[in-house]
TrEMBL record, chains A, B, C, D, E:
InterPro entries: LS (IPR034964), LS/RS (IPR002180), LS/RS_sf (IPR036467). Belongs to the DMRL synthase family. The active site is at residue 92. Keywords: Riboflavin biosynthesis, Transferase. This is 6,7-dimethyl-8-ribityllumazine synthase.
Length: 155, 155, 155, 155, 155
């Protein structure tokens, strides 16, 4: 991952990049960690804080809804989507995770804005915590790297 | 959740918000509780009753169908969708829950209207009851809060 | 369910309603029962037979295909879709049921025509028979009621 | 099934029908059987060979891709899709089967061309062989019958 | 497979074919093997290296996103998509694989560009390695063959 970030840092294209982060407050313990990781990746990539706006929504379903609204403004090159869907007693989490993942994919395909997939689907809090900590497994960090690489990819 | 509601209450933007609630009558014991929770959240958010219209349909499949029709009128900023899909003997509930969740996502992405996901998918009535009672786990309440926050989010 | 039907009967809006029933002939023992239930619900709702046309197709996949063609004619307010997908040795039934349920949802969302979901997904013939008999559990009956209520819903 | 075919034979509408068959070469032992069944059904339906074109692609994923290209030409009333997805060690087959079934559904809904679903999803070769033999369980045969009935259905 | 490639080699249509390969760097050990297989298939098919461009993205989600952007340029006849989704502790891989497979299907259906499905979904590294080696089971190789055949298919 570090190598990937290095590539981003040297790219002059990322200097003008406009990026949004949409984060769900549900399972806040986890999503705060994802957001921290995302902001660290943004910093490591050499983006300035003013290139970035952070939006808070209630849950992962709303992350996708807001991401689409943001994508349609055509003001952004990348939107990083952060949320935490934890398995509960019912199958709710599976339907939600499916709809959100497919929904985020659709936003990317329909609008061309680079969507960073930082929505965790975990079976329990232990798994979720392992994906939002201060190390290289932070999926918020990875989602930012992926989205910046994609947004700055020349085709 | 209370904090979230507080944020809504102070927002002047929610004063002019037009919101619809679409509720399925199937598994009425559950969906009545969801509706009660939703109306409480609307009240707690400082919305007046005249800003809100409630629509009844047969089941969760029809909730999505009507929500799309309402969303296309462009008269509304938010639509809260309430239903209860309980696991039965067959896989019907899983296909229905998948289609409804993806369908509600599509409405949000296509129209930009804030969709509140208040459709319960539960394995049994005990689980369903635990999600429609007079406490903070009422998913109708949560869906209203999520939808109002999303609808009043400045981007 | 009876209450729901009563509401339909008194509605003057349903008097001019144009409704189609699309029924799959595959698993004919079951779908004949569904059709019977659907026609009974149509009768109970006070619709006249001339307001209704019945179409036969081979299987549930084709039900969705024809329903979309019918919906696009804009001559109809409601289309009731009847079929029976029974679990076999393979996973064919699950993929089919998923595609059909999502497909019918898409028709409703895209066209605004009220779609009645009367496609059974059952693990065996016993379960299927229990959903197409001459009682209140007939899903063809329920699908008609749901579709008429939806189609006559003022928004 | 025989009755259904008889109905097709007498229909004068099928005389001018243009139909394509798209067949995957992957798991050729199975798909050759499906194609044989499909061609028999075409013959039994009274269609002449010149009304039909057969296209070969690599696998079931490509069947859907080519079927959409063909459907968009607007030269065809029906496209019969033949493939064999057999369960392997991984979940690849499930994701593929899901995407192909939903994809074929989408083609039918978007274009109005009658799509015959002749893609087998089987857990093993025994199950696959049982669905492509010289008997009434040949799914290629059934897919042709279903597609012709649908394409010639007056609405 | 060899036979299929032979057919491609003789086709004069593939001489002017423009093809892109999009490869995910995540699980690089596997995707490097897929890329090697893909480039070998391109060579075996008689395409010259200048007819082909290779793009690197972070993961399989981004493969689909970039493939859509490339497809919309209308400069390409085929896009081969390479990635490796390996089962982890959570259900993340299943949702990702579902969204990616459906997403790649949608690109093919929407744009008409031939999409080669070379995204592996494996339960473990052993299964993944078995699908990216220097033999006929390399899915990168197979995806190129499938895509070229499809792109050069006259309809």
């Amino acid at each position: 991952m570090q190598r990937a970030v290095k590539k981003i840092t040297v790219s002059s294209k990322s200097r003008s990049l406009k990026l949004a982060v949409v984060v769900a407050d549900f399972n806040e313990e986890i999503t705060k960690g994802l957001l921290k990781g995302a902001l660290k990746a943004i910093h490591d990539s050499g983006l300035e804080r003013k290139q970035v706006r952070v939006y808070h929504v209630a849950g992962s379903f709303e992350v996708a809804e807001l991401a689409m609204r943001l994508a349609k403004t055509k003001r952004l090159e990348a939107i990083v989507c952060l949320g935490a869907i934890i398995k509960g007693e019912t199958t709710h989490d599976q339907h939600l995770a499916s709809a959100v993942t497919h929904g985020l994919m659709q936003i990317g395909l329909d609008t061309g804005v680079a969507i960073g997939l930082g929505v965790i689907t975990a079976n329990n809090m232990v798994q979720a915590r392992a994906r939002c900590g201060a190390d290289k497994y932070n999926r918020g960090y990875a989602a930012v790297v992926a989205a910046i690489l994609l947004a700055t990819q020349k085709i």
